[in-house]
Amino acid sequence: MDVFLDNAGGEQLRCAVTAAREGARFVLVGALSGQLAPDGAGRTCPVELDSFQLLLKKITMRGYSADDDFATGHPEWLRRFGGWLRSGEMVFPLVRVQGLERAVTALLEVIRGDHLGTVVVEL
Prior knowledge:
By secondary structure, this protein is of the alpha/beta class. It is 41% helix and 18% strand. The chain contains five helices and five strands.
């Protein structure tokens, strides 16, 4: 892989380092594995990485937060992103689940990876 967008951290990040090609670029935008950890408070996402692999493969990692350039980039982002959505150049998978009684099941399916994209529980 050449580019990796990581919103989970943890073991997924470790596996991505293993699979990365030389010169790969990683953008770290979240820590979902820490938030879903049964024994964690969601404020940390520890992972042990082989720093020798980072050196050998010349991997670049950068953390990013939307707050980094919100004031300067946000209006331009909304314009461009909105255009992609309106034109159909970008689409998002959406699963609709009927009824609040199915909400817990839907959440478990999301965690298990049964659905791709957004899951909406309709009341």
